[in-house]
Amino acid sequence: MSKHNHIDEVRGLATLAWPVILTQLGQMAMGLVDTYMVGKVGAHAVGAISLSNAIFYAVSVIGLGMVLGLDYFVSTEFGKKNLAKCHYWLIQACFFCVIISIPLTLAAAGSGELFHIIGIAPEVIPEAKRTLHILSLSALPFLMFIAFRQYLQAMNSVKFATIAMILANVLNYFFNWIFVFGNLGAPRMEAVGSSLSTTLTRYILLLAIIVFTYLRDKKLNLGLSQARWKIDWQGIKEIGTLGFPAGGQLFFEVAIFSAGTTLAGRLGTVELAAHSIVLNIASITFMIPLGIASASSSRVGQSFGAGQLEDVRYRGWLALVCGTLVMALMSVLLYVFNQELVGIFISDPAVLALAPQILLLACIFQIGDGAQVVGTGVLRGIGETKVPMLANLVGHWCIGLPIMIVLCFYTSMRLVGLWTGLTVGLFIVALLIVEQWKRKSRLQQLKSRFSFSS
Fold this sequence. Notes:
Layout: H1 6-38, H2 43-68, H3 70-79, H4 83-110, H5 125-136, H6 139-154, H7 159-181, H8 191-220, H9 233-267, H10 269-305, H11 309-336, H12 338-345, H13 349-381, H14 386-409, H15 415-440, H16 443-453
Helix pairs in contact: 1-2, 1-7, 1-8, 1-10, 1-11, 2-4, 2-5, 2-6, 2-8, 2-9, 3-4, 3-6, 3-10, 4-5, 4-6, 4-9, 5-8, 6-8, 7-8, 9-10, 9-14, 9-15, 10-11, 10-13, 11-13, 12-13, 13-15, 14-15
């Protein structure tokens, strides 16, 4: 496109982004369904399922980040109109998922042996271990669903993943009803039944997206049905080379919030509750720029693959502006309705007094969060994943964490100090990533990168 129509471009970005946002919210909802169902059993069951879900995600997030790198390979080949190569990368990604799911499954299942060491309540440990063992078996379908989703998304097909995720939540609720409470002749399994429900749902979800992908391929005659399923170690190596930094970036990002929760827990019950509520609210609004980031990665990758380098720059900067503006709007809404939002989650007076103060900090936090996640997405669209990983390591762990600890435990700021450190670290990450995009999106740099990739 020689001349850019801003309205058309925003519409194109939104068309691809909103189903991704709904899909991400659907993935979050699966955990909420599990918690809601086992909440009727008792606190021990909630503790077991919450702990096993947290451990599973902390381990699998590395694999998740690696599979997200498929965006670049498929979208650039789609931009070149090389469908055979798009199919090739899906097939290699599936083999890659099988390979990495083995150590991830073992790591997740084995993490239960650390529960005693990290001080988990003894009465929760046996059930938490059993739930984690079953949940760890869902690593393969979890990652392979992402691979098929990224393949479809890179080719501008996103609606099925959204519909499938909505139906998966209904199915997960039904399976929870059967296995948690022992309905329809099944044994009453409580928290273990919930992890079984999630695992079964993930396998069915994978089967559904595979069937859809091949039916779509047959209808449009794209050639996937004729593609040869043969492992190519060079392709596996390329996915790993691009994906490992993406996995590291996601790990550093997720781990800093886990560290923040641990620090908040040392302050006391009120502080931990306030921290958790604000983090939940921020996690929901974060799904919007995450969807924009995922959509922009595909759109930037398609332009890059087609050699439309001016469009690469334009689409990247447009996505950054959209992501930042949307999060600025979210900040205003959080500021205006801070008391009401906290009140949805809890009625405890002490938490109601503290959490809105933290939510006001989260208003600032939102803008940096939007910029960094969209910046990471557009950089991934041109095959750059190392700098976002290093930015998260430096911003969060080298700068943000020390500020969190000092302000939290060595001043009177306590939880406010912790969130100040989180916010500072996040803005440093955002600045480093946006600066890298500014440098990498110069036409000379893009021409050099395009020539190398071709």
